[in-house]
Design goal:
alpha/beta; 367 residues
């Protein structure tokens, strides 16, 4: 995977001149997948894409819906580790990573987090608004949240979701007690994890009339989405106001990440809270009915593309997110690449995409 190594070695994570290299790396990845995954090849043949010669632009790459990933275990090579989606819908995707993918992901993560000023040598205390590691938990969101605590030297790690005999249970009281201790210290506090549990903590503190003045340099880093609490998602203005009111953390110190286990690329919002597309990926917004690519500023289904992994065919993935791709050239942050705005999510029963067609193509495959 020479082209993948070259792409993920890019010094500037938002270099907009890498489009040709990106497409070539995708073709390289495609050739591996169709030669090492019969199920993927069957889908591609059914869609009329038989070789990389049939791909002239990223939109031509065959798309696999995430709902199909949750129904079928795709494999396309040897691997070192496996991560799963959260399984909130009852089924989960399984994504395997080989050594080359892990190294590429590490380079990407360091470059993106350095660019956004998240990497620091100053020790911090971490409050993880997510799962405490447990041998039964193989979800990508748990692994990612824990790995994020290594972006600075960690003095301590406090987790809100603890494993019990009845499964994971939230420990809000433990977090409140820890906040009372941490505000008296000098080390910055970094929150990392689900925005839902972070917001629920804000509301709990507000209801109790509690507020904490955390040390200078404290941050809130959000990732993993709202999951089963999607209907309770707070607007960003309300979230930022409560963060300031309850923890004395300003908006400029709140960072949000976007990603998926089926598309393990790190999207980090800029100073104006825009998810600019990094050089390691591409995004196509598609019409929900026809799957045709839409122009900038149009709302449709979010198609995520990256040649990161070869052990699982996740080259081009269709999510159930509704989004808009904006022209990023006028963003005040200075990054010129387009940026993604997530505007909602469509229930699987309402998505009229290639999901059913792809399932038909997989006739004979045990799901």
């Amino acid at each position: 995977m020479k082209l993948r190594r070259k792409l993920f070695a890019s010094k500037d994570p938002y270099d907009t001149s890498k489009s040709d290299l990106f497409l070539d790396a995708c073709k390289e990845n495609f050739n591996h997948l169709i030669n090492n995954c019969d199920d993927y090849k069957r889908i591609c043949d059914g869609l009329g894409v038989h070789s990389a010669d049939d791909i002239s632009k990223v939109e031509d790459i065959p798309v696999i819906p995430t709902m199909l990933m949750k129904q079928h275990d795709f494999r396309s090579g040897r691997y070192m580790i496996m991560a799963t989606s959260s399984g909130t819908s009852g089924k989960m995707s399984r994504v395997r990573f080989e050594f080359g993918a892990l190294m590429a992901a590490l380079k990407m993560s360091l470059k993106v987090t350095r660019f956004h000023g998240i990497v620091s040598i100053k020790p911090c205390r971490y409050i993880v608004m997510g799962y405490k590691p447990h041998r039964s938990n193989k979800t990508a969101v748990a692994k990612t949240a824990y790995l994020t605590t290594f972006l600075t030297p960690a003095i301590s790690r406090k987790f809100i979701l603890k494993y019990t005999s009845e499964g994971y249970k939230p420990d809000f009281e433990g977090i409140v007690k820890a906040l009372g201790k941490y505000e008296k210290g000098k080390a910055p506090v970094r929150f990392m994890g689900f925005p839902s549990y972070t917001f629920f903590l804000f509301r709990l503190l507000e209801e109790r009339g509690l507020s904490f003045k955390l040390p200078k340099g404290s941050k809130i880093m959000l990732g993993g989405g709202w999951k089963q609490f999607y209907q309770e998602a707070a607007d960003k203005e309300t979230f930022y106001k409560l963060a300031k009111k309850t923890l004395n953390i300003d908006e400029e110190n709140i960072v949000e990440f976007y990603g998926a286990v089926e598309h393990p690329i790190l999207y980090t919002d800029c100073s104006h809270h825009h998810f600019h597309v990094p050089v390691y990926s591409n995004i196509v917004i598609r019409d929900p009915d026809t799957l045709e690519p839409l122009e900038l500023e149009k709302t449709g289904l979010v198609n995520l593309i990256s040649p990161l992994c070869k052990a699982t065919p996740i080259l081009s993935i269709m999510t159930d997110d509704l989004g808009i791709l904006h022209d990023g050239s006028n963003c005040p942050c200075g990054v010129k690449s387009p940026y993604l705005e997530i505007v909602g999510r469509v229930a699987p029963d309402d998505i009229k995409t290639c999901a059913a067609g792809a399932a038909d193509i997989l006739q004979g495959v045990k799901i």
